[in-house]
Amino acid sequence: MYKSPRGTADILPGEQGYFRFIEERAALLCQLYGYERIDTPVFEDARLFIRTIGPGTDIVEKETYTFDDRSGQAMTLRPEGTAPICRAYIEHGMHNLPQPMRLYYFASIFRYERPQKGRYRQHQQFGVEAIGDGDPALDAEVIDVACQFFDSLGIGNLSLQLNSIGCKLCRPAYLEELKGHYSAHVDRLCSDCKARLRKNPLRLMDCKKPYCQDIAQSAPRSIEHLCPQCKEHFESVVNYLLILGIPFEKNHRLVRGLDYYTKTVFEIQPQGEEGAQSAVGGGGRYDDLIEELGGKPTPAIGFAVGIERIVLNMKQQGVIPPAPSAQMVFVAYLGDEAKAEAVKLTAELRRGGIAVVSNLGDRSLKAQLRQANTLGVAYALIIGEEEVDSRTVMLRDMAKGEQRKVSMDEVVGLLERS
């Protein structure tokens, strides 16, 4: 018996309400802030991700789905959303448009990692990117979008974690201090952190092993090694967040997992939980990324959230998405002549913009009404021999349990007005 691949999940009809609710709230919020939707291919040239995410990251080394197409070109299923959007920004000359470009997306993301609750090898992501402006006020705007997004869903008890990891001018000196600190404890490091010490020392701060966390707690802090420009930028971001009334916590261990981040980094976590496994969303600046891809120097900032993890938090907090507003109608019939009229009436209702489910087969009226009740329809229309002869239909209000006969010629207009 076939099953869905490990680390994937079917989104069944009963779950779709959560996903549609999240997407609708996200799209409405982006419209309020002036962000426009963009969609990119589900796979890209593999070199795009190796170059932008970083060859020493866990994602590139262990987690990408990479394959050769029939021409021999290495392709990778999208493991994150920012790099493809930056590629599209360059390819389509978006730098010629008014800046910053405010963009948002919904995308399937693919990473070969250990499946966990709310974390899948294929998951859905909502993300926002603001490209073309280095103003710290834009950092605050993007963070505000993220916070307002969760508020709009009714999810509470969240904590905004904030840090700055500097730029390519001040970070090298910080990394040397970081390596010096960890080198004194190398015998206590896990195998992954021993590799990170050589390849990607910033990622040492994000290890979840207890003994590595102890070392990280006493490690040098990036915020204390910022150059004057990065320090001023971070102080301005903090000031704008205070102006907006957005509470936050400075977290010196927050680094994010992709090499392209600069300056501001942030995560939104359930209060009392820490780390990437608990975060419901996060992002930061990536001021060097577009230049690394061959474009002009272009500052940018963005964030992304995993929709499955949001659904999990909604369920944990008892947040139920509203039911669809459209009133569905069920058409029931008895007999062959009534069936022909039911088919005709069903088509007329649908063309009038009314959602309809029609009975199929030869079930009893009792069974048909039981199905209508299970579907939660507002009205049932019942056609029998008597209704066929009199050109009428029995209109049953499913909530009140009341019914009355109406003309078949009038029923469409009557339901349109109800």
3D structure, described in words:
There is one protein chain. With 418 residues, the protein is an alpha+beta fold. The protein has two domains: 13-170 and 226-316, BirA Bifunctional Protein, domain 2 (2-Layer Sandwich), CATH 3.30.930; 329-413, Anticodon-binding domain (Rossmann fold). Helices cover 39% and strands 21% of the residues. It contains 15 helices and 16 strands. The protein has helices at residues 13-33, 46-53, 58-63, 82-91, 136-153, 171-183, 191-199, 210-217, 228-244, 289-292, 307-316, 336-351, 365-375, 385-390, 411-417, and strands at residues 36-37, 43-45, 66-68, 74-77, 101-110, 122-131, 158-164, 249-250, 262-270, 281-285, 300-306, 329-333, 356-358, 379-383, 392-397, 402-407. Strands 1-5-6-11-10-9-7-8 form an eight-stranded mixed sheet, with helices on both faces. It has a five-stranded mixed sheet with strand order 13-12-14-15-16, with helices on both faces. A three-stranded antiparallel sheet has the order 2-4-3. A hairpin with a 5-residue loop joins β3 and β4. α1 (13-33) runs antiparallel to α5 (136-153) and α5 (136-153) packs parallel to α9 (228-244).
Separate helix tally: 15
Poorly predicted spans: none
- Indicate the CATH class of the largest domain: Alpha Beta
Coarse structural class: alpha+beta
CATH level 4 superfamily of the largest domain: Bira Bifunctional Protein, Domain 2
**Overall 3D geometry?**
elongated
Q: Order of strands side by side in the largest beta sheet?
A: 1-5-6-11-10-9-7-8
Mean pLDDT across the residues is 92
Distance between the termini: 47 Å
Quote the CATH topology of the largest domain.
BirA Bifunctional Protein, domain 2
- Work out the radius of gyration: 28 Å
Secondary-structure arrangement, i.e. CATH architecture of the largest domain: 2-Layer Sandwich
Instruction: Write down the domain tally.
Output: 2
